[in-house]
Design a protein that fits this description.
Blueprint lengths: L1 H26 L6 E8 L10 H4 L2 E5 L4 E4 L5 E8 L1 E9 L2 E2 L3 E6 L5 E6 L11 E2 L3 E2 L11 H6 L1 H22 L2 H13 L5 H9 L1
Parallel strand pairs: 1-9
Antiparallel strand pairs: 1-4, 2-3, 2-5, 5-7, 6-10, 7-8
Length: about 200
């Protein structure tokens, strides 16, 4: 009788433990699956490897700084432990501007990535190749030499006026009647120069 009671207690305890374990397993949240998001940063004019000076200045940012990584010399990068859902990918590179990229990681398709450039709304290839939209210049670019620009400048206008005066004035002088020129010169010579006192008197009147 005592043995039967003991077996009953053991069975009851075993069933109770099984129920507790099953309940804890059901109530415990499942760990979210994580995936790898990888791609390549491609700068125009580079085919195989980027110079070390360029790779050191190019970084890829996930979700505004949640994860950050620098690209390898071959331009590739990878983010580990990315959960399923929508993420924002940004490339920070001195001298270049990249469009932010919306990355959709599918749990149903086992981490398949679909990427869309935010600014151009263009779907990127499955390889996730990121290319700059344009170059950025942080200093004012010096305009190339232009003859038209030189002629429009104040110095160019002054030089042009002097050249016109040098070449045209002698021709204008030759076209004037010598007798008329002589008469004008004599009138100017005979006309008395105004004195300082006369100027003051003229102002007072």
């Amino acid at each position: 009788m005592a043995i039967a009671m003991g077996l009953r207690h053991v069975c009851t305890l075993t069933v109770f433990c099984a129920i507790v374990l099953a309940a804890s397993a059901i109530s415990a949240p499942k760990a979210a699956s994580s995936y790898v998001v990888e791609g390549r940063v491609k700068v125009e004019g580079t085919t195989t490897k980027l110079p070390l000076s360029k790779t050191a200045n190019i970084k890829v940012v996930l979700n505004g700084g949640e994860q950050l990584t620098f690209i390898r010399p071959d331009g590739y990068f990878a983010f580990q432990g990315v959960t399923a859902g929508t993420h924002l990918l940004e490339v920070v590179a001195m001298g270049y501007y990249f469009s932010p990229v919306r990355v959709d990681v599918s749990a149903r398709l086992h981490g398949q990535v679909r990427a869309i450039a935010v600014e151009t709304r263009r779907t990127l290839p499955d390889a996730l190749v990121l290319e700059p939209l344009r170059e950025e210049f942080y200093y004012e670019r010096r305009e190339p030499f232009s003859v038209v620009g030189l002629l429009k400048s104040p110095m160019g206008l002054m030089v042009g006026f002097m050249l016109v005066a040098v070449f045209l004035l002698p021709k204008l002088m030759d076209s004037i009647d010598p007798e008329e020129m002589k008469r004008v010169q004599e009138e100017m010579r005979n006309q008395p120069a105004p004195s300082f006192s006369n100027l003051l008197q003229g102002r007072s009147t």
